[in-house]
User: Fold this.
Amino acid sequence: MISSELQKLVLFRNMTETEILDALRGLHSMEKHIKKGSIFLHAGDTTNAMGIVLEGSVTIESNDMWGNKTILSLVGAGQYFAETYALLPDEPMLVDVRANEDCRILFLYIGYLSESWSSGSWKEKILKNLLLISSHKNLQLSGRSFHTSPKSCRGRLLSYLNSISKQKHSLEFDIPFDRQQLADYLNLERTNMSKELGKMQNEGIIIFRKNHFKLIQP
Amino acid sequence: MISSELQKLVLFRNMTETEILDALRGLHSMEKHIKKGSIFLHAGDTTNAMGIVLEGSVTIESNDMWGNKTILSLVGAGQYFAETYALLPDEPMLVDVRANEDCRILFLYIGYLSESWSSGSWKEKILKNLLLISSHKNLQLSGRSFHTSPKSCRGRLLSYLNSISKQKHSLEFDIPFDRQQLADYLNLERTNMSKELGKMQNEGIIIFRKNHFKLIQP
DNA sequence: GAAAGTCTGTTGTTTAAGCCACATTTTTAT
DNA sequence: ATAAAAATGTGGCTTAAACAACAGACTTTC
Assistant:
C-alpha cells in the first residue's frame, strides 16, 4: 500500500509522508485482503486493531440467535471501523464485521498510541484525527437512530431517503444497499418494505429502479 | 464548583489540580443551573460548548413535528453531552437536550483546545480523555440500537432489562426511566408496553414495582 | 445461450402493535 | 387531610407490519 493513497485520509490529516510511514510502523500496520461475504471480526471477541477500508466496503451488523440481522452501518473505501473497540480493548464487540465486497483492509494497532508518548510526534496528530473520526462516527450512529425511530415503514423509508438526498445535494441518487440490506438497516421486513416502496411510487412520491432513487416534490 | 468534585471525572483523569484549573480557564468554563423540564439546547442549533452534568440528569431526545418523542439517552451526574457537536461545531444538532431534573451543568468551550498547542500541557491530557469519552458514547449509542432492533415489544424490553442487569451485576435493580420515558427510549407505545410488562409479570419472567425490577431465571 | 442462482415484487393470512377512552394508583400541592 | 394532578394499567377496536409461499426479473457462470 502506498502512502500517497493514505495522505487523503482523515486519520493522516496534516501529516507528512515521513510521519505517516513512522505511524504505520509504530502502529504495526498490516494489510489484508478479504473475500466478499466473510465475517472477519466476530461479536463477542475483543480487538486491538482498528480497520481502514482501502478498497471495497464492509457492513457492521448484528446477528442474533434467531437469525435476525440488523445492519448498523456500511463502511466504504476511505472509512474506518472498530476504532471504538480498539480504543477500549476490554469491551467485547457487540457486532460482526462482514466484507460486503472483496476488500483491501489496513489494520492498525492503535493501542501503541499510548506507549512512550513523545510530544510533537505523529502520535499527537493521529490522536487529534482519531477524535474527529470518533465524533463523526457518533453522528452516523445517531443518524441511524433517526431512521429507525419512526414506527411506520413509510416513515423510516422517507427519513432514510431524505437524509441521503441531503447528503448528496440532489433529489436523484443511488443508495449503497440492496433491498434486503436496506430492510436490515431500517429494521423492516423486506417484502413489506417492497410493498411500501411500490405504493409510494404509485402515489408519485418517489421513482426508483434498482438502487437508483428520485424524490418527487409536490 | 470545586475542582475536587471534578478530579473524579474521566475528562480530567491524570490531571493535577493546577492543570484542571488551567483547563477550566482555558476552555472558558461556565456553570449554569437549569430547571427541570426545560430544553436548553435545541435541535437545529449549533453549539461550541460541551456539557458536564454536575448534578441532576438530562435527556437527549428528538421531537418531530408530529409530536413523537424519541429519547436517545439519559445523561446522569458525572457524564457528558453535546461533546460531539462541540467538536464538530458546524454540525447542526439533531436532538434536543432537556433537564430531566433540576440540574447543575458545567459548559466547556472545547474549541479552544486547538488554539496555540503547547505540548505537555493540560490540552494533551484533555484530548486523550475526550477520545475515551467519545468512544464510550459510541458504545452507548450502539447499545440503544440493540434495544430497539427487536421488532416485538417484549424483545425490546428483555434486551433493555438484560443489559441493565449486566451493568449493575444483579438481577434486581432500579431503572432511571418512568414508563413514558422507557417507552420513548425503546420506541414503543406506552400503554402497549404496560400490557406487555403485565403479561411478563404474570408469566413469572419478571417482578416489578414502579422503577424497581427483578428478573426471574427459569 | 441454457441453467442456476440471486434479487425483487405480489398476494393473502396471521399476529401484534398502535391508539382511544377510561379506571386505578401514586404523588404533589394547598 | 383533601383535592388536584400526574403516572400507570386495562379493555377493546383498528390497522399495519410480519410471515409464508410463490412468481417474475435480472445476473452469473459454464
Summary: The longest strand of chain B covers residues 69-75. The mean pLDDT of chain B is 92. The CA atoms of residues 27 and 109 of chain B lie 5 Å apart.
